[in-house]
UniProtKB/TrEMBL annotation:
Residues 302-720 form the TonB-dependent receptor-like beta-barrel domain. Belongs to the TonB-dependent receptor family. Pfam families: Plug, TonB_dep_Rec_b-barrel. GO terms for cellular component: cell outer membrane. GO terms for biological process: siderophore transmembrane transport. It is a multi-pass membrane protein. It comes from Lampropedia puyangensis. This is TonB-dependent receptor. Residues 101-209 form the TonB-dependent receptor plug domain. InterPro entries: Beta-barrel_TonB, Beta-barrel_TonB_sf, Plug_dom, Plug_dom_sf, TonB-dep_rcpt-like.
Length: 758
């Protein structure tokens, strides 16, 4: 039977066709039901007045607006519809398959994991993902630290080596730098985390992939307000208006939200304020296609407490004498708009087109003494002023077809991303006194940087039999960097460079029983230096900052392998296991972090080997158990004469574990407990110092009830219940030995959420 006739056929027809083709009816039906989900829902063109009102509401609330789009309409929750966790559809593989069927290490975290918390940091809900460490720096000027299979540990701010998407819109720039500050945890639906060789199909800097999806408007209109408070003057407030209509053309669903967060900080010089707003509209067009519009704005003003030396940490974990002296701080503002359009071309093909544009400004005051700037003509100053315009587009065609009589799914696409940075540097003091820091002084740097990437790609899945399937992907990734120096008093430091790589990946999956599956995968990876990593050359032998861009820095190229297994434990349980190895040449590693400025170098070879285990089980209808364990052996290769030869890669824990149990009925009392443990972490290449390992206990409770049109949810939580002293994250290779960012002691938080449904 022609494949196109099966798009809308009944299950009985599928079963009949499957038997004639020699394919297991259950597998065949599951495959075509997944294909059916490619059909776009009908969304609605907004009336101008309604769209203007929606945007105005969000902007007036004090933060701004986000643009986000979800590619699947199966954003299911275990608590709401009874689906088992492994049946939730995932989009990370671009095949609209389930976590169970994906031939890769992929985890799904429901937004509910963040609901019973303050909904500010990614570290609140991602601890149950094996292979991923999310470290809270207690420093909102630098955001959380994400490490995935050892990638990302070198980052002193933002995210490196991991690609991030928010509602299908890239949060990773073409140079590989990612931001997470605009992810709205207040309206989060789910997160997908993809590890392993297949992440290479996302191109540059894809040591792993994090995809966040916010909630679509659904059901009758409702208003939700939420407030939370906690230790160290923490306050968070949120408001959301959402709903859906039955219209086939016009606005079909909408979600408008805003949040405000304030904290005095655990340490000195650690106050922070953050405003965030999102608007998400689903629109149905007359031709049956769908359009989603997502608007986002985030505004962060945060002091920077910097790191501590070991002596400072042992003396007073809250002190930040250098930060106070230099008044270190950062201001970030970002506005972004995105459009995602889906069109069903025929029974077997669907077109997906995405475009986005944004602006980001960043001003940072650093802790650099005046003498270092005055005595070095090439110094770029102690104030960074960055204004960025960025945007891009992607077109993707998904086709169901047959290859030599086998069912197959083919995805082809082309993505383009670009950014333009106006980067300036200023002294952080006023001459001639040179003693009062934290001000904007004389200009020391003025340049324009441009980065763009153009990546064609193709990937395919072929179902060979009821038990066997194969996947393959190929992407050509190319990145171009150009810099024009406008500050010529110390010479012209303009320059340009190009990077490119072919990135193949492949996987094979075997399912011997209904409850057990195995897979093997292999692939190539590619990571270019970011614009910030090219901005500063390492200091010379005399300790002086060298002039010009760090164009000697090469892209890292890796080869990875993975073997994995998944086991369905009924009822509603899933066990996953994976063994991996990643060999990298010219790995980009930290050379030095000195007074807020980082320089980088290439390591000849590095290796990352490890094991990941996870177990998730739901039982007694309202109870859930989660367990995750990761072992990672991340080492430098043998590099003759180098101090780091054969040593641990700093910033990467060798072992981490997490376990939690939770009782969470829709109404009534709720309770939970979790334990997180991490082994010690090297803080520099020489492995001369380590941050000690730790294990912490978290306790939570709450109560949910309904009263007429109102639904109420109260929670209370204690983190680090033992009040342990430990290091939350490290600053790798800090030039002043300020490696340590202490974690907070015992912390409490409580909050109340109220929803009124019209």
């Amino acid at each position: 039977m022609c494949l196109s006739r099966l798009w809308f056929c009944m299950p009985e027809c599928l079963e009949c066709t499957s038997q004639r083709a020699g394919v297991c009816p259950a597998i065949h039906r599951s495959f075509f039901m997944q294909i059916l989900r490619l059909r776009p829902r009908l969304f609605v063109p907004a009336r101008p007045s309604l769209l203007q009102c929606a945007v105005s509401m969000v902007l007036a609330s004090g933060a701004g607006v986000v643009l986000a789009q979800t590619t699947t309409d199966t954003q299911t929750r275990v608590q709401s519809d009874g689906k088992t966790l492994d049946e939730v559809t995932v989009t990370a593989t671009r095949q609209n398959t389930t976590q169970w069927q994906a031939p890769a290490s992929i985890q799904v975290v429901d937004g509910i994991a963040f609901e019973r918390n303050v909904q500010v940091n990614l570290s609140e809900g991602l601890a149950a993902v094996p292979g991923l460490q999310v470290r809270n720096r207690q420093n909102y000027a630098q955001d959380v630290q994400l490490i995935m299979r050892g990638f990302g540990a070198r980052s002193t701010f933002g995210v490196r080596g991991i690609r991030v998407y928010v509602d299908d819109v890239p949060a990773t720039m073409p140079d590989g730098q990612s931001q997470t500050s605009h992810i709205d945890l207040f309206t989060l639906d789910r997160m997908e985390v993809l590890n392993g060789p297949l992440s290479g199909m996302y191109g540059n800097a894809s040591g792993g992939v994090l995809l966040a999806y916010t909630q679509d408007g659904q059901g009758p209109a409702s208003i939700t307000t939420s407030a939370a408070a906690g230790s160290d003057g923490m306050r968070r407030w949120g408001l959301r208006v959402q709903g859906a209509t039955d219209a086939q053309v016009g606005v079909q669903n909408y979600s408008l939200s805003t949040t405000r967060f304030d904290t005095d900080g655990y340490r000195q010089q650690a106050q922070a304020q953050k405003g965030l707003a999102n608007a998400k509209l689903g629109i149905g067009l007359h031709d049956g296609s769908r359009l989603k519009i997502v608007l986002n704005h985030v505004d962060v003003q945060a002091q920077d407490p910097l790191g501590q030396t070991r002596a400072q940490m042992l003396q007073d974990r809250r002190q930040s004498p250098t930060a106070v002296q230099f008044d270190t701080r950062k201001t970030v503002r970002q506005s972004q708009v995105g459009l995602v359009w889906d069109k069903k071309l025929n029974a077997d093909q669907q077109l997906h087109v995405m475009g986005y544009y944004g602006q980001r400004s960043n001003r940072q005051y650093q802790s650099i003494p005046s003498a270092a700037q005055i005595n070095n003509a090439g110094h770029s100053g102690g104030v960074i002023d960055l204004n960025r315009d960025y945007g891009g587009a992607e077109a993707r065609l998904t086709s169901a077809l047959q290859v030599a009589g086998y069912d197959a799914l083919l995805v082809t696409g082309l993505s383009y991303d670009a950014l333009k940075d106006a980067r300036s540097g200023y002294e952080n003091f006023i001459r001639p006194a040179n003693t009062s820091y934290g001000v904007k002084g004389a200009m020391r740097r003025d340049e324009t940087n441009r980065v763009n990437s153009l990546d064609p790609y193709a990937q395919a899945t072929v179902w060979l039999s009821p038990q066997w399937s194969v996947d393959g992907a190929l992407r050509y990734s190319q990145v171009r960097f150009r810099s024009r120096d406008l500050y010529l008093s110390n010479g012209d430091d303009s320059g340009s460079t190009r990077y490119s790589a072919w990135l193949p990946s492949a996987a094979i999956r075997w399912q011997p029983t209904e409850a057990w599956s195995f897979y093997a995968s292999a692939g190539r990876g590619f990571e270019t230096p970011t614009a910030n990593e090219l901005a500063y050359r390492p200091r010379d032998a005399a300790g002086q900052q060298q002039l010009g861009l760090n164009l000697d820095l090469k892209p890292a190229r890796s080869t990875s392998w993975e073997l994995g297994s998944k086991w369905r434990v009924h009822p509603q349980g899933l066990v996953t296991a994976a063994v991996f190895q990643i060999d990298t040449k010219q790995d980009i590693v930290s050379a030095e972090n000195n007074n807020g400025k980082g320089s980088f170098r290439n390591a000849a070879k590095t290796s990352r080997k490890g094991v990941e285990l996870s177990y998730r089980q739901s039982w007694l209808e309202h109870a859930q158990l989660d367990f995750a364990y990761t072992y990672t052996r991340a080492r430098y290769g043998q590099d003759a004469g180098a101090a780091w030869s054969g040593k641990r890669i700093p910033g990467v824990p060798q072992q981490s574990a997490y376990a939690s149990v939770r009782w969470a009925p829709d109404t009534g009392w709720q309770a939970g407990a979790d334990v997180q443990a991490l082994s010690r972490i090297a803080v520099n290449d020489a492995n001369a110092e380590f941050a000690n390992g730790f294990a912490t206990l978290g306790l939570s409770g709450g109560y949910a009830w309904k009263q007429g049109a109102w639904r109420w949810q109260w929670f209370a939580r204690v983190d680090n219940a033992q009040d342990k002293d430990y290091v939350g994250s490290v600053i790798v290779n800090d030039g002043n030995s300020r490696f340590y960012e202490p974690a907070a002691g015992r912390q409490w938080s409580t909050g109340l959420t109220a929803t009124w449904q019209f």
